[in-house]
Amino acid sequence: MYKTWRLCRTHTVGGLCHDGSHRFVSTGGAKIGKKFENMNQIRDYLSRPVWSVHEYLGINTKEEKLEPPSAEAVKKLLRLSGLPLEGADIKEIQMRLAKQLSFINKLHNIPVEGEKHTKEYDARLVQRNTKQLNYTKLLEGISHQKQDAELGEVSGSWKATGLAAESKNAYFVVKEGLLKNRK
User: Fold this and answer.
1) How far apart are CA 143 and CA 156, in angstroms?
2) Which residue has the higher pLDDT, 150 or 95?
3) Where do the structural domains in the chain lie, given as residue ranges?
C-alpha cells in the first residue's frame, strides 16, 4: 500500500510541533479513496453504518439458549460495583449480562484477515512473550539515551531536589514529625 514509512518530527517555534507529537509521513503516493471536499461529506461518510450491533447481539436467539450468570454472581457484582441490592431485578440483570457476554464472545470469534500479523499487535488481555527487564538492561538502555538539544533538553540541567525545602547530598530530607505537627 505505502512504499515507505518514516517517523519524523515537525519543528516549529521552540522546536516542538503545535501538538507536541510525532508525525508519520508517507513517502509513497498511496490513494485510499476520493478526497473529501467539505465537512458534510465527512459527516455523511461517518454516519453510514458499516455493520450493525444487532448482527452480533443475537436478538433472534431465544433467551433460553443464553446462559445467564448465577444470582449469587450478580449479587456479588452489584456489591463490588457499589450498586444497591434492594429493589434490583436480579432476573433482568442476569439476562442483560447474558446478552452482553454473548455479544463479547461473538466479537472474539469474528475472523480477522491477516490474523498472524495482528496477533503481534493484539491489545486484548493475552499473555505476551516479552523478555524480562532487569536492572542491568535498564542501566544499559539509559546509557544509550541522549538529550535532544532541538527540544530544549540540556544534559544535567534537572535537579530532583532543587525545589525541596531541605536536602543533603542530592537526597531529600524527611523528618519524622512532618505530618504529626501540622497546623
Assistant:
1) 14
2) 95
3) 1-29, 52-111
